[in-house]
Amino acid sequence: MLSADAGASATYPMQCSALRKNGFVCIKNRPCKIVDMSTSKTGKHGHAKVHLVAIDIFTGKKLEDLCPSTHNMDVPNVSRKEYMLSHLEDDDDFLHLIDEDGGEKNDVAIPDAEFRTKAEAALANSETKGDTEVIVTVLTAMGEEKAMEIKEKNV
Q1: Is 29 left (phi over 0), alpha (psi -120 to 50) or beta?
Q2: Cross-strand bridge partners of residue 143
Q3: Sheet containing 104-109, strands listed edge to edge, beginning at the edge strand earlier in sequence
Q4: What SS3 class is residue 82?
Q5: What 3-state class would DSSP assign to 120?
Q6: How far is it, in rounded angstroms, from Cα 109 to Cα 98?
Q7: CATH 2.40.50.140 domain extents, the chain
Q8: Residue 144, exposed/middle/buried by CB under 10 A (0-12, 13-18, 19+)?
């Protein structure tokens, strides 16, 4: 099965000084979103340093890194895609999703009990109303996927 990003690299290089807050960066080989950054002045022996504080986009863990501003860092290719939630099974922990072409996707795990509760409530509400569908936003980076958000959308 071919995916849409076949041949695309998981990361691309970017100079430290070009990174921005709310952008993405790889720290300890994990895809992260930059929440804070500061630059120290050029020292007597070297380059200005960039101090990065970032949150792993999949685990929520805080990571930090310090690198010379002229050095390159890897930036993950992050994509967001919306899927329609078809249904949930009581005996598995995966979302049953449908893409815009009608294809099924059953390999995205339900992140936690709270997400399952929201999904069940949204599906029940959608069935009652009949004019809404449940949309799940899935974030993909570096070979990992996670359902990040769930919402109801009027049809």
Answers
A1: left
A2: none
A3: 104-109, 94-98, 79-88, 132-141, 144-154
A4: strand
A5: helix
A6: 14
A7: 79-154
A8: middle
Residue-level pLDDT at 3: 47
The answer to whether the beta carbons of residues 12 and 75 sit under 8 Å apart is yes
Residues of the chain with CATH 2.30.30.30: 11-76
User: Helix count (H) and strand count (E) of the chain?
Assistant: 1, 11
Is residue 1 predicted with pLDDT exceeding 60? no
What's the CA gap between 17 and 37, in Å, rounded? Answer: 10
Place of tokens 């007597």: 44
Per CATH, which fold does 11-76 belong to?
SH3 type barrels. (2.30.30)
The confidence score (pLDDT) of residue 90 equals 85
Integer-rounded Cα Rg, in Å, for the chain is: 20
How far apart, in whole angstroms, are the C-alpha atoms of residue 44 and residue 135? 54
Mean pLDDT of 119-125: 92
Average pLDDT (33-48) is: 86
Q: Which CATH class is domain 79-154?
A: mainly beta
